[in-house]
Structures
1.
Amino acid sequence: MKIASGFIAAILCVAFGSGVASADSVTVDYPSADSTVVASHPVIDGDEFGYFWSGTRGDRITETFTGTGLYDVSSLDLTFEVTRNVLNRGAYVDWNVFLNGTSVGGFIWSEFDGTGTVNFVRSFSPIVGNGTYTISMEVANTVADGYGSIAIGFPGSATLTGRAVPEPVMLSMFGVGILGVWLRRRRKA
């Protein structure tokens, strides 16, 4: 009996330990040609989105990624280019970043930032998506008429880091362990 219960304990440790605890990351193109974009001219010259200036209109870049293999995500790293900046008179575009509808931070791009690379890196409490994640950057403010806008180049990149979705083998081992516990209890009765 002690051997069987030791075996079951080992199976449970493997099932709960190796299938879920490791940190993994996935890098995807974001923004990309597959992104959903709300802006005054969504696609400019085939590799830019723009012009972003209106939170009132709902300016945003959103894309859903499936099959990432990540059970949850606790870190997001975005890298992309601001390719045009015609903001003036102290104007800025205030962005909120969301993962599966949860705010994970934001950034501001002003006339003084010119054009160049945006590196947005944030860590946060795990957001469970079970392999499917939607990234959305949304303009939070509205730039006054005549004060300009910005454009964003694509593709950029997004790296999501979290824990892997448990593998089917680990889940079946867990099931075998539970079955063993049930059979042991049944024999005692």
Note: Residues 6-21 have pLDDT under 50 and may be disordered.
2.
Amino acid sequence: MKTDTNSLHSNEPLIEYGTFGLRLGALFIDSLLILPFILFENLYNIPYLKSELLLSVVFIFALLYKPFTEYYFGATVGKMILRLKVVNSQLNKPTWKEILFRNIFHITPIIIGFSVAFITFSQPEFSNITSFREYSILEKHYLNFVYQFISFTVIITDSLFLLTDRKCRALHDRIASTYIIRKPKNSK
């Protein structure tokens, strides 16, 4: 538990920041919620249905889940379960702009991933695919490598910021001037 006796403002109450472990736990819970959609896409839509509409629906859900829930509810389902809340530098509900900046490392890879998938769906060889493994082989092109490299680099950099910041802020939190705080047990 990382707390700040001075808080963000000297006259504010004690603040408990969301630690790396809590945030990782929230991410794990959120991943479990999204996983059925991704599995459906990878194990059923790609090899059998080959529906660009379903591909789009899964990507839109993945794209909007985090920004939408953080803006409207102050947290994703995983954060809610672990009593974490996204706040801005004044400890208020973040604006849409702050939420979008905060989620830039979430939104960008999904858009790139959708683009790679859409390009792969449009290749003539795609109609012959009967498994996700075959799809993965077809998808292996330069853009996908660049996408994976950039995503990995961003995740590592973001995590290093989170692990070394006194207030447990990741790089995306600093960009958006947001914080993850832990709500007291009896608060709503």
Note: The beta strands are 2-4, 15-17, 84-88, 178-182.
